[in-house]
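Changelog entry

Holo records now carry the ligand SMILES as an explicit input line rather than a separate metadata file. Below, a converted record for zinc ion, shown in the new format.
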Amino acid sequence: MIFTINNIIKQTPCSLENVRVPLRKGDNVLSRHNLTILFRALFLYLVIPQSLVSQSLPRDVEASFASAVSQSRLQETVHKLVEFGPRMGGTESGDKSAEYLTEQFRSAGLEVKVVQDPELLSYEHTNWSLAVEEPASMKGLIENEWLSGYSPSLAPQKARLVSDGDSEGAYSGSIVLTDKRVRPEFYDRLVKAGAVCILTYAPAEAGKYSDAAFISSLRASAENPIPVFHLSYSNGERLKQELGKEINIILSFSSETVIARKSPKTIVATLKGESDEYYIVCAHGDSDSGGPGADDNASGTAGVVEVARSLKQLIDDQQVVRPKKTIKFIVWGAEIYSTGHYVRRNADALDKILGVMNYDEIGTGATRNCLYFESNELPHNERLLRTLNAVGEEYVGKPGFWEESTTNPSQGGTDSYVFLPDYLRRLNMPDVKIPSVTIYTAAWDELAHLKQTEGWASKAWKGHPDSVTVDFSRYYHSSMDIPSLTTDAEPFNMAWAVKAVGMALLRLAW
Ligand SMILES: [Zn+2]
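Structure line, unchanged by the conversion:
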């Protein structure tokens, strides 16, 4: 049975009614009553564990938690993380970020463990250049470009730009412009034809990534012979038009990258409870696209730190005692990869995990100001999601809280899924059931319209009760996922996500 705070509050005084104080001759009703009050007070003070006393003020505690959450501190953390670089697992910027986070959790007073995940082939750029040299009128045209993951280092050089629509004979010694994604077969074909560099502006859809370059990665290898640069739609289209006029375009380019086998560092900060059963609050610490990753996922990382710091502050200020359940705050060194290794390492003790609350993209939203809680079609997620949804409904519209919230069905693609049956089946753990959800304000690069799971219409959702429109980020996996366009543009998103998870934990873990 789930022993809720309300149960405890209701039951404590009731059980005291059964305590009988014997009446002596001469006692009157009033003095007996006084004695009972005195006895109750003494009982509450001496007998009831402090963990239960703390539950008599849940609303006050929730309000204190919410006021401890600092939006400016969240923004500051994002800035710091983005300044390190893309923070991919096993890279220098990833290590710097891990060091910084360790310090943040330690200074909040938590016990921190740095876990070295198994080595992977890590990639990081240290520098690059790309510019139009001729014609002079087009100098300075290229802006906000980004180097593709696993591009090699190449010394500065100049070459002529050709279109992928030209005959392959024209590719030799040239830079090839394409609007297609550079998948391995396509890359190999251009390399074979003698291309020295590739420029792509995929997905090349009008209205998307107009001034930002969508970033992807080459195959993870230290042997890729030529670099690929991603361009914005406007830059790509302009170059294509100029090539169509048969104008001779010369570009210069260079790249400095580091490709090496290294271990991503996963940070595990623990807030010890009375029991070793635990909740996880987590986020991937890398910008999985290899871009700046302010929203995806410095926002989520900052969120994990802020929940930890604000909850610890409540304990330090003696507004609550330590929780009944332990809480682990985890920042994954590499999305999915580090999470998978965590599950493997803890395969014998997965039953200790009471629930996972994962943050991914809590820093922006293109069309709504909504908190989403995913995945509601899984029966074993019910308690966790009902709690988040209840918090969502109780606080919606209040000053300092979200404009909308809802649960929604699975969309996949983030760390919470590693704890869910489909992934666990692959690890030969088909019977393990870990409640696992993701909290976010945007997902992917376009709106998604989902049918709402039956029984999950939320009073905090402003749309039709039978459907959910999932908001997106205009800068998803792009060169412009930077604070000024995402987390600083609407910093309230992060604060809301922190408040929702912290308040849910106060209901679940204490
Ligand atoms: Zn992400």
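Spot-checked after migration. Residues 128 and 337 are 28 Å apart (CA to CA). The first strand starts at residue 111 and ends at 116.
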